[in-house]
Amino acid sequence: MSVINQGHVKFNIDDKGIATIEFGHPLSNSLPGKILDKLQKTITDVGAQNDVKVIVLKSDGERAFCGGASFDELVAISDEKTGLEFFSGFANVINSIRKCPKLVIGRVQGKAVGGGVGIASAVDYCFATKFAAVKLSELAVGIGPFVVGPAVERKVGLSAFSHMTINATEFMSAEWAREKGLFMEVHESVEDMDAAIQTLAEKLANSNPEAMAKLKRVFWEGTETWDNLLKVRASISGELVLSDFTKNAINAFKKK
After folding, report:
1. Three-state DSSP class for 182?
2. What pLDDT score does 5 carry?
3. Distance from CA of residue 139 to its chain's centroid?
């Protein structure tokens, strides 16, 4: 099986109404287009179920949270239409979280890169461990964080977003991300983080669903144009990924 076709998305709903959605891929939980598509559909479908009170979004394993876009798939993009479709996958995941009527809790156990930072920024309340350093590496491979940018900037502000975008080869610590507002809590271990997530999820599962849905709409006020905005941003990345500069940069990055 090719690397692009590997990976999984699965979910379960417990008797308290806490839904857990997990994505995974053998290459640092990177996200090929098929996984992005399935993740978006799962978030949308699970969020629409009446018995679901709150969603926990996580990735597989205890190392990297998400390595971002699949380099193998990026290198294989050969026309603007395919580029738009691929980067729209990240746009669709972010928008599915934004439009989900349930609050989404993020669980970031390890490093998050590129699109992984975008997903962590899109959730409504994000937990992390001290190992969860973050990096927007897109400029280093010839593109830019155009699609995830609105979600990241919304959480950390323009200054911190610019810092991450320009300093594209450096990881920022989990504590830095907490100070900037990306993470709400940073824990010493996965066990401590999971205990805190369970406590909050159970509290939310017992809260008023209507109040939470209305609060979510308040939290996301001003983002009503994102369906179109993120598609436009995806087209920018889809064009840039076709350049020789980007192809060479990605191939060089893969060899490291």
Report:
1. coil
2. 75
3. 18
Whole-structure pTM value = 0.95
SS3 content of the chain, % helix, strand, coil (to 5): 55, 15, 30
User: Token pair of 131, please?
Assistant: 């190992």
Mean of pLDDT over the chain: 95
What is the DSSP code (8-state) at residue 221? Answer: T
Question: Is-contact 5 35, C-beta < 8 A?
Answer: no
Residues 117 and 148: beta-carbon distance below 8 Å:
yes
Amino acid, res. 106? G
| The token pair that represents 120 in the structure block | 């962590």
To the nearest 10°, the Cα dihedral for 146, 150, 155, 156? Answer: 50
* List of residues 6+ apart from 81 with CB closer than 8 A: 238
Asked if 93 and 39 count as a contact pair (C-beta separation under 8 A), the reply is: yes
C-alpha of 6 from chain center: 18
Strand partners, 179: none
Residue 224: Cβ-neighbour burial (10 angstroms; 0-12, 13-18, 19+): exposed
User: CA-CA distances (angstroms) from residue 175 to 109, 170, 201?
Assistant: 13, 15, 23
Give the gyration radius of the chain's Cα atoms.
Answer: 17
Residue 164 pLDDT > 80, yes or no? yes
Per-residue DSSP letters for 142-171?
TS--TTTHHHHHHHHHHHHHHHHHHSTT-P
Classify 137 as helix, strand or coil: coil
Beta-bridge partner residues of 19: 13, 55
